[in-house]
Amino acid sequence: MLPPTPEQAEDADSSIEKSEHPHKLRRRNRLMSMENTTLTEVITIYEKLKKGREENSVYRHSSNFVDGSTRVDIEFNEAEETIPIVPIFLTLPSIEIEKNAKNTLDFNKFKNFRPSKYLYFSEKSSLLQSESIEKLSLNFSELLKEKNYWLNIYDPNEQDFSVLFNSYGVHDLTINDIREGNTEEKMEAYKHYTFFSLRLMPDSVKDRKENEDVDFNILLFKDFIITVHDKNWPSITDILGFLNLMSTHSTGLTPDWVLFSCFIEMNQDAKYVMDLIEPEINKIRVGSKSVEMSGIMRRNFDMELRVYAISRFIKPKMRILRQLKVKCSKRIDKIVMRLLGDILEEFREQTHDLHHFNHILERSQDTFLAIVTSDQSREANEMSLVMKRISEIALVFLPIQAIGSFFGMNVTVPWQTDYYPSPMYFWIIVGICICIGLTMYLLRTRILAFK
Q1: Among 418, 417, 252, 266, which residue's Cα sits nearest to residue 335?
Q2: Which residue of 230, 273, 333, 451 lies most exposed, with the fewest beta carbons within 10 A?
């Protein structure tokens, strides 16, 4: 049997594609969307952006050039003679030059924006803000009927809870969890939405009280996503910058990407705090001889508390991501699910690093305690030597002092013949002293015998 010709194979592939179910074709298109190199580059750079650093947040596309030319790389054999390689640029008239706005990836577009109580973002409407939910748009009811949008509610009140219940059908249990706050971190799957109750890294929130947990709640629906929180989270700005690039360089902005961005920001918060404490831990290990030991142990204890706080922040997220993969993988886009799996792996690496930090701090604590014990033992030995010398000196002078005391009494003493009366009182005093001494010795012996 002869193999099919290329034309026959192409016809067969097209017939297979036509016979496939529509949702399979959509899924294939979503999987193929990662072939969009710009989209891949946006995600890669976004995952590598680190907080707390004055770094560039505007990048050029790696495959775009200002003059519209295309680069052709030259492969050569290393065994051959090395010659200077000059990139060859071929100008292709069929390729149109992109606009300058699309030649850069600006992650810092919303750097100076001040968040309002209500924030609405979608690919169609872009960014909308207002202090009243009805003032987000002239036709608010039609705005909420759109698809693929993100609604962020800051410091919710009872009116917001009423909107969530009446307009979005959010369950009473979910609303109670959001209202009460300080609930455990969890993921709950309901009929038409998935509820995520998370906590933010305390160091990433500026207006919180000391030892206060900051809740961040996510309601993931099929066509949109709602986030609710009662404290200002600066990472909202970074999420907006990422979503703006996603809406510019991708085929569609879905709620799953907002969920992905939230977990990325939480991962970056943990990385930022870990980068801060690592030099402090190394400084504790190096500077143990130059600083007072009590101060070092106090600082070591503070570092242990911070390591515990980061671990307490990471572990619930790991559990939620595992549950999401098992229970709700069909609700999440496969590409986003795969990227969330990468975040889970990064959380695991951070947990490993925290375990290493904790091990260093524990060993350091043991070392400091051993040094303190050694110093106390040395001081005790020095004190024992001093007391030994004092005892030796007292042993020399004690008999002399006793003889002088006896013969210095205001009574007649033996061998004194010039005075009257007899030395009877002297012997009475000596006898009394001997009796007291024997009594004390016998009592001490009896007490030690009972012990």
Answers
A1: 252
A2: 451
pLDDT digits (tens, 9 = 90+) for 362-379: 888 888 888 878 888 888
Is residue 39 within 8 Å of residue 63, measured between CB atoms? no
Contacts of 172 (CB under 8 A, 6+ apart): 165
State the pLDDT confidence band at 424, using cuts at 50, 70 and 90: confident
Sort 64 into a burial class: Cβ within 10 Å, 0-12 / 13-18 / 19+: middle
Query: Residue 227: which of 347, 120, 122 has the closest Cα?
Result: 120
How far apart CA 31 and CA 260 sit, in angstroms, is 16
Q: What is the CA radius of gyration of the chain?
A: 40
Reported confidence tier of residue 207, pLDDT bands at 50, 70, 90: low
| Residue whose C-alpha is closest to residue 340's, from 249, 220, 211 | 220
Distance CA 142, CA 139 (A): 6
Residues 6+ apart with CB under 8 A from 61: 38, 41, 103, 104, 105
Closest residue by Cα to residue 152 from 241, 217, 238, 221:
217
Q: Which of 205, 186, 203 is nearest to 195 (CA)?
A: 186
H-helix segments, 37-157: 37-48, 140-144
Q: Can you say whether residue 288 is alpha, beta or left, with left for phi > 0 and alpha for psi between -120 and 50 degrees?
A: alpha
C-alpha separations of 134 from 139, 158, 409 in Å: 8, 15, 107
342: number of Cβ within 10 Å: 14
- 41, exposed or middle or buried, with CB in 10 Å at 0-12, 13-18, 19+? middle
Distance CA 341, CA 267 (A): 12
Angle at 364 between CA 363 and CA 366, to 5 degrees: 65
Instruction: Report d(CA 419, CA 304) in Å as an integer.
Output: 82
Examine the pLDDT at 380 and tell me if it is beyond 70.
yes
120 strand-pairing partners:
128, 151
Tokens 């906590």 found at:
199
Q: Which residue has the higher pLDDT, 209 or 93?
A: 209
Write the burial class of residue 109 (CB in 10 Å: 0-12 exposed, 13-18 middle, 19+ buried): middle
Look at residues 128, 163, 124 and name the one whose alpha carbon lies nearest to residue 147.
Answer: 124
Q: Are 316 and 344 in contact (CB under 8 A)?
A: no
**Amino acid letter at 39?**
L
Question: How far apart, in Å, are the Cα atoms of 389 and each of 135, 181, 383?
Answer: 90, 68, 10
